[in-house]
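Feature request disguised as a bug report, sorry. It would help if multi-protein outputs had a clear separator. Right now it looks like this:
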Amino acid sequence: MDKKPVLVVDDEKNIRLTFSETMTQMGFDTRTASNGEEALTKMQGAEFDLVLLDLRMPGMDGIEVLRRIRERCPKVRVIMITAHGQSSRPSRP
């Protein structure tokens, strides 16, 4: 049984390349996208086992991309990633 590719979506080139190279070395067929729009376009033409999806990107953010992925491909696994250390939740007093 052939595995479907993994899609790495991140606007930061170095992060995208690091994940892509690591996944490739682990034996995964890996594709990349630099933004949400590109990711959704690539998902129209191929099926993916897994999407590594950046939370914060300019334009369409990761939450919106996730929503659209769920509408089109509800069974694909998605792991949200971020390089930002701050939570979006307000801090407690």
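(second protein starts here, but nothing in the output says so)
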Amino acid sequence: MPALTTLEPLPLGVMTSVREDPLAAFRKVQELGFPTCQLGNPPDQYVYGPEAGEWTARLRSAIAETGVIVTSVFIMFKGHVWDLVDGPRTIGLVPEETRGERVVHACRMSNWAREVGINAVTSHIGFIPEDPDDPRYRPFVEMMRAFCRYCGENGQTFAFETGQETAATLRRVIKDIGLENVGVNLDPANLILYGKDRPLDVVDLIGPYVFNTHCKDGVWPEPGGKLGREVPLGEGEVRIRELIPALYRQGYRGPLTIEREIIGERQIQDILRAKSLLEEIRAVTLQP
């Protein structure tokens, strides 16, 4: 697989998924003009069952043929409810009731990523207790340390995708895990959608730990338990024109990965507009 180090700083990317035709998915990334992508959790047949090896080989072939660099794969767990009411008991590896089976899946995904040649994994881990004296906190940290060590043995980094926790809590967890391969997949919109932080207020706090990004935008949630609303990049409260240079000053040189969580032609239009916006921001940020 081509190496990210062969690209200039802040390469553009897009979140993508593979279904029945991985080559078509990667050709689409290529046609849109992106040198990199993040890969969503693949369908089960790529990871489990007697035909998993064949599906994985097709994916590897698609990556090799197009030359698109996969900067991370996202681990998804079944049963998530994406809101502020049921989310705490259903999202990620924090809920103890579902943790066992989900850790097994996470480890299998790490193994699968190694087979594909992907050296980074990321996931929403859930509503991490903000109080370090909460009785759930230490067992959670010990579990995450074991899983992140497992990823390290597979030659991978692990990145917490931002959203359900404050930046201060996330920084503390990373420091408590205490492994060099652990960092952040910064989705600034999620900080807003979950009502946790304003991205520019916390970039100094977590910027040094950012491994990857989701360039997405949104507005603050209204009362009632629903998440805030996602909007096209540049039209929300993320302040992306200021955020990217701030990340760069913190030492970030990794990909700027667009995510637009809608479907249809409007999604492609918004992705291309986001690409133009990021190209403009990138050019200004990289000026000597």
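Even a blank line would do. Unrelated, but nice: The longest strand covers residues 69-74.
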